């Protein structure tokens, strides 16, 4: 059995690999992850192809397009989404959480004060790492 957690880009990887390969993980905790396809840098222009790629690989889209078999497999994984209320990726994390709920996939949500910062992640990891590893004591 495996557990996975990651923050920021690692949080995206946590979400992506768990959604694509739920049979590999017993628990997963993406922290401050990029969950939607919306580009976050408003001061930069993006090509339509880039935006389309982001959108197709977003956690929200993945959650909305799951087959019945994928949903059944994900229900066996302990999932927890953690994001600060001041994080620029907050809305995407909330959209992902709602998409998981609509798919009837159990998923915990933790929102605390903070942004996309090491200060936030230090406290998040302090909580998340014991949470994902609890499956190893059973």
Number of helices: 6
Low-confidence residue ranges: none
Strand order of the largest sheet: 1-2-3-4
Using only C-alpha atoms, the radius of gyration works out to 15 Å
Mean pLDDT reading:
88
Separation of the first and last Cα atoms: 11 Å
Helix content: 40-55%
Could you give the count of β-strands?
A: 4
In short, what is this structure?
The chain is of the alpha/beta class and 138 residues long. Helices cover 46% and strands 16% of the residues.
Describe the structure in your own words:
With 138 residues, the protein is of the alpha/beta class. Helices cover 46% and strands 16% of the residues. The protein contains six helices and four strands; from the N terminus they run E-H-E-H-H-H-E-H-E-H. It has helices spanning 9-20, 48-56, 59-64, 68-74, 90-102, 118-133; strands at residues 3-7, 27-31, 78-84, 108-112. Strands 1-2-3-4 form a four-stranded parallel β-sheet, sandwiched between helices. It is globular. It starts with a strand and ends in a 5-residue tail after the last helix. The mean pLDDT is 88.
How are the SSEs placed, and which strands pair?
Layout: E1 3-7, H1 9-20, E2 27-31, H2 48-56, H3 59-64, H4 68-74, E3 78-84, H5 90-102, E4 108-112, H6 118-133
Parallel strand pairs: 1-2, 2-3, 3-4
